[in-house]
Design a protein that fits this description.
This protein is of the alpha+beta class and 71 residues long. It is built from one helix and three strands, in the order ββαβ. The chain is 20% helix and 39% strand. A hairpin with a 4-residue loop joins strand 1 and strand 2. It is elongated. It starts with 7 loop residues before the first strand and ends with a strand.
Length: 71
């Protein structure tokens, strides 16, 4: 895994659209454990949508990197 070989850690990249829809979901950094990586990926894919971006942000989309870790 990246950073520490005693810890499983994967990083998932995705985009949140203004309406809260998630898209462009991909594994950005692998843990080296395919089952763990796919579980993290699936968790984001199954989320599908989050609350809309706040109007104050004045953004069409937000890029997100989310880390999943098991010590």
């Amino acid at each position: 895994s990246y950073l520490n070989k005693d810890t499983l850690r994967t990083r998932i990249f995705f985009v949140i659209l203004k309406d809260g829809t998630l898209k462009d979901i991909k594994i950005d950094k692998t843990s080296g454990n395919e089952i763990f990586d796919q579980s993290a990926y699936r968790a984001v894919v199954l989320t599908k949508k989050v609350p809309s971006l706040p109007e104050e942000m004045n953004m069409e989309f937000l890029r997100v990197y989310l880390e999943f870790e098991i010590p």
